[in-house]
Amino acid sequence: MNDVINNLKVQIFADGANLGDISKKSQCSYIKGFTTNPLLMNQSGIVDYWGFAKQSVALVGKKSISFEVFSDDFEAMKREAHQIHALGDNVYVKIPVTNSRGESTMSLVKELSENGLKINVTAVFTLKQIEASAHVLQGSKASYISIFSGRIADAGVNPLSIVTEALKMTQRQPNIQIIWASPRELYNIIQADECGCDIITVSEDILKKISYLGKDLNEFSLETVKMFKDNADAAGYAL
C-alpha cells in the first residue's frame, strides 16, 4: 500500500452489498468499516435481508458495519432497529433523517440512542438536518451522521462547506462521527481527509482505483497515451 493511503487520517468504509467483496475487504488494513443500504442490497440481488446481515457481520469481525431500516412507519422502524442492533456491538443502525413523507425521524433517533443503540443518521443533506441530528444524539453511546456529499454535489452545491460546518457543530461531541457519503470520485477521499472528516464511505468502483493515489502524473500521462494508441490499433482505424 502506498504512502498516501497509509497517511490518511480519514477512515475508509467500504459501501456495498456483495458478500464476496465484504469478505475480501475485511482483510484490508485500510478498510476500517462497512456500510450498506436496501438500494445496494436490491441491486446485488439480495432477497433475504436477515440472512445477508448475519453473514456480513460474521465476515467483518470487529469492524463497524451499518444496516438500514426499510420501513416507513416509525413503530416498524423501531422494531427493525432493535433487531439490527442485536446483531452485534459493532453494528450501527441506519435511520433516514425523514421517512418518505418528509416526517422527521429525530424523536425516534433520540429514543433509540438513549436506549443504547448505535445510530447512523443517513440521507442527510442540509445544515438544519445536521444540527437536529447532532442535538438528539447528544450523550449517545456512539453515532454517525452521514452527509450525502456526492448527491449534494450533483445539485451543484459544494459539499465541502457543509461537511466542514458539520465538523464544527460536533467538535464538542466526540461520540458523533461525520461521514462523507456517496462520493463520486477518488479525489473525494483526499477532500474528506484534508477537511478533517472522520469517515468516507467508498463504493467498489472507486475502491478499484485506490492504487492511483499518489501516482506520478507524468507516468499516468504516458500510460494514458499508450492506452489510446492500443485502442486505436485494436480498432484498425485509418485515414
Per-chain topology:
Elements: H1 3-6, E1 11-15, H2 19-25, E2 31-35, H3 38-43, H4 49-60, E3 64-68, H5 74-85, E4 91-96, H6 106-114, E5 119-124, H7 127-136, E6 143-148, H8 149-154, H9 159-169, E7 176-181, H10 187-194, E8 199-203, H11 204-207, H12 217-235
Parallel strand pairs: 1-2, 1-8, 2-3, 3-4, 4-5, 5-6, 6-7, 7-8
Describe the protein:
- By secondary structure, this protein is of the alpha/beta class.
- It has a single domain, classed as Aldolase class I (TIM Barrel, Alpha-Beta Barrel).
- It contains twelve helices and eight strands.
- An eight-stranded parallel beta barrel has the order 1-2-3-4-5-6-7-8, surrounded by six helices.
- The longest helix has 19 residues.
- The mean pLDDT is 97.
What's the short version?
By secondary structure, the protein is of the alpha/beta class. About 45% of the residues lie in helices and about 20% in strands.
